[in-house]
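2024-03-11 09:14:02 DEBUG pipeline.ingest accepted 1 chain
2024-03-11 09:14:02 DEBUG pipeline.ingest length=191
2024-03-11 09:14:03 DEBUG pipeline.predict start
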Amino acid sequence: TLLGQAGFSAEESMSAIRATATLATGTMSGFQETVDLLSTTIRAWGLNAIEASRVADVMANAMNKSKLDIDKLRTAFNYAGASSAEAGLSLEQTAASMMVLADHGLRASTIGTGLRRVLAEMQQPGKDLAEILENNGIALENLRPNVVGFEKAMQLLTRVLWDNEKQAVDMAKAYKIFELRGAQAAAILIK
């Protein structure tokens, strides 16, 4: 019934139940929390319920190879899942970004809101970022992950935020562009 409450049809529930149970058991997590994570993710990326096994594998990998657990993933994906999908990131790229942020000590809510803030600014640059891009000869659309891909967009963002003289991220610039929640996430992701 939890899958049904998450908006899955009976047929979709049957497709997703094995992956959900396997992930919950393998991570010693509650079934309800696991349903929430998988259903949020499946819906955010517009996947079919039959892809629940792939989603569960990505989540299991994220938990096994980082500081993330089911609750942290749920929180982070609730904040940034839909934004990541809309920005053109794959599920795997989103999970990998969250893993990096978690391993650098960010809390789950900061991972989600920080990643969402970075992606929002990359998709629709504000005045400060637009000016910096123009000064660096970078077209606005070249920073959009859904146009050029996440890796290339991050390379361009690195070019904008990296201080070659100090060999570090220019945090003043990062805070000016991404504000409090996004600056730390941007700095970590471009390293």
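2024-03-11 09:14:41 DEBUG pipeline.report The two ends are 43 Å apart (CA to CA).
2024-03-11 09:14:41 DEBUG pipeline.predict end
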